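TA notes, week 10

Several of you asked for a full example with nothing omitted. So below is the full record: structure tokens for the whole chain, then the designed sequence directly under it. When grading your own attempts, check the secondary structure regions first.
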């Protein structure tokens, strides 16, 4: 039994390592979105993959003889391994050879990457940088001037005040590329620069190749101005337009690299804004829908409320401290998943959007609730199997406690409903959030009463009704008071692409 337990633990570790590597393939995935979105989606993918492993190993052992030829084809030496290692190899090196499992894995991975805004978040940030005002930091001006003069540019070709001229465009590009040199010695950015050194070197090579063209372009502009124009107007304009096009393309690539760097190395929205401001970008950048601080605060708050309810509950059959903590973390993760499913479709599915004057998309609210409930079932079942270390025992316990998934359904539907509210003359933003908090608290408490009644019929463990109502109301109030307001304050992908930069950013080309 000990050997089997060790084999299962090592199998879970092997499957988890391969799953983490697959989710971050290509390696630019992590730098394409915020830490909160990436690690939330990666953790969910990891849990689902491990859940599939446990389900195949403990729930369907009769299928093992059919899997052995597939594993043997990829690794002939593995035919003598124990069942946990065979299943682990099936879900790792042999996975591409299993059509059904490979298709399910690809769908789960791509769906979660899509939900984590990979790579749309870095594109959104890059678009915001293109529209942001830019001011060359004073400490950069002298060294930039020296570098450009050393490249053969005339002093009048170096412009630090923002305008639409090709001279300013080239100066801005040079400033940004020279600023990236500081990242090589920065504690947080050095690892990113080393990992993507080829991309940075490509930017520098393209800049070096364009330098002679910049000298010729600026010389032609000066000579043409001194001559007062003439027959060469079209030729000079065409040369200038070609140079501006190539420089703008390189500048946009530089924005992409900068965006990836700050997304990977700066964990919070405020830290990213501070770093971009140091580079010279002006104006407040649009935050993601829910920032890392908000997500962590929500998860921590729910977990601590649930844990406090468990600790202060007097019960002779109360589980051990480790199981109580695991339950609290699982419930916190389930509620965060419910919020995810409540808000995610609003920016992705046309049918889930409530535009001005439209009725509420109630059908999509219900669909989100069902999807959240299904995800909660997987998370809860996986936790039970890990606690019991026996799939059959975990399934029996889950079949008795399934009514708790109704709480997930209610939290999802209510959050989706309240997120579509709009302040009005009667309901100001402050009054609205209090109404949403109290309303969700009351409805979650009513749902908890229904769940408690159903648990009597399924034979599940019956907690004290007063404790359940109090905890459900507290969690419902916190979610209703915070999440819909967070959602309304943040920009969303349904907005027109021209508004990606947000109201605080100037619409200045390049």
């Amino acid at each position: 039994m000990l050997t089997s337990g060790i084999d299962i633990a090592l199998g879970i570790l092997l499957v988890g390592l391969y799953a983490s590597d697959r989710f971050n393939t290509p390696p630019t995935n992590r730098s394409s979105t915020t830490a909160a979105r990436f690690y939330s989606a990666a953790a969910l993918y990891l849990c689902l993959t491990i859940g599939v492993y446990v389900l195949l190993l403990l729930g369907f052992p009769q299928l093992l003889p059919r899997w052995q030829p597939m594993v043997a084809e990829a690794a002939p030496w593995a035919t003598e391994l124990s069942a946990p290692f065979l299943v682990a190899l099936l879900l790792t090196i042999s996975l591409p050879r299993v059509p059904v499992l490979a298709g399910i894995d690809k769908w789960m991975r791509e769906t979660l990457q899509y939900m984590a805004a990979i790579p749309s978040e870095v594109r959104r940030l890059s678009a915001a940088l293109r529209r942001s005002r830019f001011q060359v930091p004073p400490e950069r001006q002298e060294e930039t001037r020296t570098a450009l003069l050393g490249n053969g540019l005339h002093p009048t070709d170096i412009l630090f005040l923002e305008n639409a001229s090709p001279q300013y465009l080239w100066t801005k590009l040079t400033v940004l590329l020279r600023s990236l040199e500081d990242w090589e010695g920065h504690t947080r950015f050095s690892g990113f620069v080393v990992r993507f050194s080829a991309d940075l070197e490509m930017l520098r090579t393209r800049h070096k190749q364009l330098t002679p063209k910049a000298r010729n372009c600026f010389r032609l502009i000066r000579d043409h101005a001194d001559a007062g124009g003439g027959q060469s107007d079209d030729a000079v304009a065409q040369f200038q337009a070609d140079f501006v096009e190539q420089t703008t393309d390189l500048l946009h690539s530089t924005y992409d690299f900068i965006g990836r760097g700050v997304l990977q190395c700066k964990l919070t929205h405020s830290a990213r804004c501070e770093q971009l401001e140091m580079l010279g970008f002006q104006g407040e950048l649009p935050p993601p829908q829910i920032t890392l601080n908000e997500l962590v605060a929500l998860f921590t708050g729910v977990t601590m409320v649930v844990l406090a309810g468990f600790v202060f509950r007097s019960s002779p059959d109360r589980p051990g401290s480790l199981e109580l903590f695991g339950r609290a973390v699982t419930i916190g993760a389930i509620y965060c998943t419910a919020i995810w499913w409540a808000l995610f479709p609003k920016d992705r599915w046309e049918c889930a959007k409530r535009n001005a004057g439209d009725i509420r998309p109630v059908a999509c609210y219900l669909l989100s609730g069902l999807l959240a409930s299904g995800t909660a079932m997987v998370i809860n079942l996986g936790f039970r199997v890990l606690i019991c270390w026996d799939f059959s025992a975990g399934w029996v316990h889950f079949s008795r406690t399934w009514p708790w998934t109704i709480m997930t359904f209610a939290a999802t539907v209510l959050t989706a409903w309240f997120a579509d509210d709009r302040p009005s003359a009667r309901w100001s933003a402050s009054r609205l959030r209090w109404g949403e908090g109290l309303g969700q608290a009351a409805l979650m408490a009513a749902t908890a009463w229904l769940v408690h009644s159903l648990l009597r019929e399924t034979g599940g463990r019956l907690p004290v009704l007063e404790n359940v109502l109090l905890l459900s109301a507290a969690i419902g109030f916190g979610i209703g008071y915070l999440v819909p307001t967070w959602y309304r304050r943040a920009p969303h992908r349904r907005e027109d692409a021209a508004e990606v930069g947000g109201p605080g950013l100037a619409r200045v080309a390049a």
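The CA atoms of residues 385 and 394 lie 5 Å apart. Use that as a sanity check on your answer.
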